[in-house]
Amino acid sequence: MLQKKTIKIGLLACLLMPMWAQALNLGTLRADEVAVFAQNVQTKQVVAEHRADALMNPASTMKLVTAWHSLNVLGAQHRVHTYWHSRAPIENGVLKGDLVWRGSGDPLLNQEDMLGMMKQLQAQGIRHIQGKLVLDESLWQNIPTALNFNDDGEAAFTVNPHPHMLNYHVVWLQYSPNEAARWQVHPPLAHVTVNDDLVRRVGNGACGMLKRRLKSYWSADNVIALQGSVTAACAQNQLYSKGVVGAEYAHKAFLGLWQSLGGTGAQTFSVSQSPIPAGRVLSRHASLPVSEMVNRMNKYSNNVIARSLVLLAHPQNQGDGAQALSVLRQRLTQAPWDTKAWVVENGSGLSRIERVSARSMSDMLKHIDQSAMQAVFRQSLPIAGIDGTLRNRLQSMRGQLFLKTGTLNGVKALAGYGVNKRGQTIALSIFINGPEANHTTEQLDALAMRIMDLAQ
């Protein structure tokens, strides 16, 4: 009799347990390396929970925090403005002095924008710059770096923010085998050449990604040496390469583009950490709006944009980088979700020390989904099977998941929203931290799908 009563009590307990407690299946993932929290935004029902309050490295899902911060502080339609100005007169096509480039920190500034500004110079008759290019870097000082990424120093994802950001301070090398210069450099950097003597031509087979075929090495004499192999099918394919950065990159790119339009002069440059009094504005450019910056940051997990947005969201949009981070951390202490144990290094997820919990990340996502920024924020997220970093993932849930991805050595993550069959929104966060995380993308995606099955 006692045994039957015990069985009945046990069955009753199972029936009273939340469904997620019985059904959450982690697959082959180690339970002590996973944290999960998922909740229906409309009904508040918890869909799935596992180690939800454990502090985890979120990798690039931390960009969701920076998106929330920058959209709140700057606004979706805010634009930053880049100016070139001078106090020098213009005589017979010659700017008789220096041209000052006031850095704006626009992380999306590219060579087409620069060419547009140069055409503004030429529209005023300027063909030769007699003086130097002066780079006004007074916008930011002490830009925070991402610590402990020395082994990735040549990678584009480690480029630091800069007042004179342009093309993310990388060049794209385009293979053009039928032209005199087999490698086209975008943007063209003055005095930089390409040496491909160590590149083998290996027939007409498939090319694939050039980054898997070639390595690039920058020498002190501004030569980009390439080593590896290409096929005829590699024509027009591109490879990024990182060498000079910061002020040197800005000057070389300016000079190369200016010369491509037939301009001359400005062969030297200088840098000023103090604001240079404005002369006559000769060229100006308005950035794309913050909403587009957030979109590109999240869709393609761009660290430069994320770290720049943290700095741009400083109230005075000028000053010490540490102060800008303090503004973000202070706003988080006032957020309507629990951030007491959060650790924020730079807001991009390019960090070994940043920490959040799955519950608090999902709480933030719920808050955003019920705010005025809901549409802009959700539109910025990669869509399963359609675009961004999820273009080739989660195909069976195409268009139903809007998730920011996160990847670091020892870290895999997904955070964002799912839509169930009833059209309800599920705020979802999954973090995997551990030695085996590098090889868990398929298991991570499978777990996300299982959680969405529970949410139907």
Automatic annotation (TrEMBL):
Q: Where is the signal peptide?
A: 1-23
Q: Name one Pfam family in it.
A: Peptidase_S13
Q: Which InterPro entries match?
A: Beta-lactam/transpept-like (IPR012338), Peptidase_S13 (IPR000667)
Question: Which keywords appear in this protein's UniProt record, sorted alphabetically?
Answer: Carboxypeptidase, Hydrolase, Protease, Signal
* GO MF term set: serine-type D-Ala-D-Ala carboxypeptidase activity
Q: What class of enzyme is it?
A: hydrolase
The catalytic activity of this protein is classed by the Enzyme Commission as 3.4.16.4
Say if the entry is tagged with keyword S-adenosyl-L-methionine.
no
Q: Does the keyword Signal apply?
A: yes
Tell me which family the UniProt entry assigns to this protein. Answer: Belongs to the peptidase S13 family.
Write the protein's name.
D-alanyl-D-alanine carboxypeptidase/D-alanyl-D-alanine-endopeptidase
